[in-house]
């Protein structure tokens, strides 16, 4: 079976389940990482810093930043799809729901478990909703655009995460050992999951 066949296999309802399941998993991963108390993921260091500057919730800032990031799609010649718009709207919603439901970690072991689950969830969520073939998310559209220019998934993801981490830290977002673990692990894990859920 070819990679293209694997990527687009399934009826529309199955693809929608993959899309929205992936978006929900992504939001849950964001909530887990933040509740770990060990440092946010790089994008959420930025989202938190921007939220602190504006007084908005992190979920709301995720939505706003997602819409603005799509401007970078123009030079990368990326085209939005139904999944792209869904990502812009729903990841922030799911993240705020997760932050409301998840208790903060009160123990180092639980904190690191949160981080491990967060990174795994976000890596799997990324390939699930991109693999649904309905359009990449705004941030991952930048990643896939860089891949089309010749960069690997691992390298493109790493470069993006480091850039937004620096910007978020300057805005006042919280970074820590959990942030470092996220930045180092998200690329290899995303690459790993593409073996079972190939990207188009």
Automatic annotation (TrEMBL):
Keyword set includes Membrane: yes
Positions of transmembrane segments: 12-34, 54-74, 81-102, 114-137, 158-186
Coiled coil, from the record: none
InterPro entries: YczE/YyaS-like
Sorted UniProt keywords: Membrane, Transmembrane, Transmembrane helix
Protein name: YitT family protein
Organism: Nonomuraea corallina
Source organism phylogeny: Bacteria, Bacillati, Actinomycetota, Actinomycetes, Streptosporangiales
């Amino acid at each position: 079976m070819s990679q293209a066949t694997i990527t687009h296999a399934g009826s529309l309802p199955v693809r929608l389940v993959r899309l929205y399941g992936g978006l929900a998993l992504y939001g849950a991963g964001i909530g887990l990482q933040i509740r770990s108390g060990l440092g946010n993921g790089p994008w959420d260091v930025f989202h938190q810093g921007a939220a602190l500057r504006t007084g908005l919730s992190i979920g709301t800032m995720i939505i706003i930043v997602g819409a603005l990031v799509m401007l970078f799609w123009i030079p990368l010649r990326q085209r939005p799809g139904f999944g792209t718009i869904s990502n812009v709207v729903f990841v922030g919603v799911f993240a705020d729901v997760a932050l409301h439901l998840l208790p903060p970690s009160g123990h180092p072991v639980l904190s690191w478990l949160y981080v491990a689950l967060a990174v795994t969830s976000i890596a799997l969520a990324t390939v699930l909703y991109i693999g649904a073939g309905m359009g990449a998310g705004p941030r991952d559209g930048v990643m896939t655009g860089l891949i089309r220019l010749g960069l690997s998934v691992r390298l493109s993801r790493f470069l993006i995460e480091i850039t937004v981490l620096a910007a978020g830290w300057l805005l006042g977002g919280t970074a820590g050992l959990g942030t470092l673990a996220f930045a180092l692990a998200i690329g290899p894990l995303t690459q790993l999951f593409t073996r079972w859920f190939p990207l188009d």
